[in-house]
Design brief:
- By secondary structure, this protein is an alpha+beta fold.
- The chain has helices spanning 15-26, 45-54, 86-92, 107-113, and strands at 35-42, 60-62, 95-102, 119-124, 133-138.
- Strand 4 (119-124) and strand 5 (133-138) form a beta hairpin.
Length: 143
């Protein structure tokens, strides 16, 4: 049984700087999982297009829950972002992405593809049952 306390070690709006610091901290971990968890909020069509180039399978979903007006059921995001037109994507914004990827395969491209939404990369340590991890998260802001 552990204590789940997070300690911020760096505050920045620079995604590249946050990523570099997280990579440095991950180098200190005794163990690391073979996968990372990536998540991002996507507010523009350009955000979605850049992220789809990195993680074409997504999965992409609505950032906020939506309901079907006719049935009241929760609506699923079912557009194929790689083939949908800009107008169709614009009508569905804002979206989110949460995906697992093999360690070391997409993290740098993911950071370069970020827009202005909150995003993060979680590097787990010690297997799925462990709560130890290095996490980097950021929000880009206009200064």
């Amino acid at each position: 049984m552990g204590n789940s306390v997070a300690y911020p070690v760096l505050r920045t709006t620079d995604a590249a700087e946050a990523y570099a610091q997280a990579v440095r901290l991950c180098g200190m971990l005794e163990e690391r999982d073979d996968e990372v968890l990536l998540h991002a909020e996507l507010f523009t069509v350009a955000d979605v297009r850049r992220m789809a180039a990195v993680l074409p399978e997504g999965p992409f979903d609505y950032l906020e829950s939506r309901r079907d007006p006719a049935t009241g059921d929760f609506a699923d995001f079912d557009l194929d972002v790689s083939t949908a037109g800009d107008a169709a994507l614009e009508a569905e914004l804002s979206l989110s992405l949460m995906a697992e990827a093999p360690l070391g395969t997409v993290e740098e491209r993911f950071v370069r593809a970020l827009g202005r939404g909150v995003a993060g990369i979680d590097w787990g340590a010690g297997g799925r049952t462990s709560r130890s991890s290095t996490r980097t998260a950021w929000r880009r802001t206009t200064v």
